[in-house]
Design goal:
Residues 10-181 form the Ketoreductase domain. The chain has helices spanning 20-31, 48-54, 68-77, 101-129, 150-170, 202-215, 224-235, 237-246, and strands at residues 11-14, 36-41, 58-62, 83-86, 133-137, 176-180, 219-220. The longest helix is centred in the middle third of the chain and has 29 residues, at 101-129. Helices cover 46% and strands 12% of the residues. The structure holds NADP nicotinamide-adenine-dinucleotide phosphate.
Length: 252
């Protein structure tokens, strides 16, 4: 358990704020009393509706987390950030029949791991100065590989490791780090998921994430699938691995 955080009065920055979970987190932050949210997106035009709704409390910024120059520029502008949400994420369907599987894996890693690492490096001093908070929107698939999403899971495992590294490396500088481990959430990312997977609305996930941050929970499981997955993972990681493998097992 870490120290608790107040959302009210905070300044936040969200990557991938234009849709899905990032959009829901951005709106939840503003509804809970953040004084300013830097809403970042690859195409700032996609933030226009949000900007109209929230006015000057919403600061739209262009940010592709794979672009080192853009990350550095945003860090130069946003020097008052208390809460950094590393939310931007990439997923592409692939499997071993895909000749491009290595390129797919690289693209996912470039956003999900290297993008988050760039943000950490660029915002570490600002967050240390403000005794701030980093939230990594990871995935249950980062704790145990989901073989239906083999390369995505690997990139989320790398991000989970980065979450742990951030916590250890920045604790002495007063920075609090939260890892979020959702199951299926109803966003564009899961539009092709088989129907047996129940999806949680992104607004419900955003509420649980902010509740977890305010409560000081290090690991946040923000949906029913994630809660169940987390409990089973903590009691027997091997049995969860076998259960995930059984989802793709082909009868002999
Ligand atoms: N949906 C799920 O079931 C689920 C489950 C567990 C974890 N997650 C994680 O939750 C996070 C949000 O996912 P989501 O479900 O909201 O997916 P989504 O609806 O597909 O949104 C992905 C967001 O990431 C942004 N993004 C992608 N590449 C980027 C880049 N290079 N630089 C900056 N932004 C980039 C997208 O921007 P554009 O609009 O420009 O593409 C978009 O805003 C991701 O980290 C994802 O891995 C999702």
């Amino acid at each position: 358990m870490q120290g608790s955080t107040r959302i009210e009065g905070s300044v936040a920055l969200v990557t991938g704020a234009n849709r899905g979970i990032g959009l829901a987190i951005t709106e939840a932050l503003l509804e809970r009393g953040s004084t300013k949210v830097y809403a970042t997106a690859r195409d700032p035009k996609t933030l226009e509706v949000l900007h109209e709704r929230y006015g000057s409390r919403l600061v739209p910024l262009r940010l592709d987390v794979t672009d080192a120059e853009q990350v550095a520029e945003v860090a130069r502008q946003a020097t008052d950030v208390d809460l950094l949400f590393n939310n931007a994420g990439a997923f592409e369907p692939t499997d071993l029949t895909d000749e491009a599987i290595v390129e797919v894996a690289r693209r996912e890693m470039e956003v999900n791991y290297f993008g988050a690492l760039r943000m950490l490096r660029s915002f570490a001093d600002t967050l240390a100065r403000r005794r701030g908070v980093i939230v990594y929107v990871g995935s249950a698939a980062g704790l145990t590989n989901v073989p239906l999403q083999p390369t995505y899971s690997a990139s989320k495992a790398a991000q989970h490791s980065l979450t742990q590294a951030s916590r250890a490396l920045l604790a002495a500088r007063g920075v609090t780090v939260h890892g979020v481990y959702p199951g299926p959430v109803d966003t564009d990312m899961t539009k092709d998921l088989p129907p047996q997977f129940e999806k949680t609305p992104p607004e419900d996930v955003a509420k649980e994430v902010l509740d977890g941050v305010e409560a000081g929970d290090e690991d946040i499981f923000p949906d029913p699938f994630g809660v169940d997955f987390g409990e089973r993972f903590h009691s027997s990681p091997k049995s969860v691995e076998r259960q995930m493998a059984a989802m793709v097992a082909v009868p002999a």
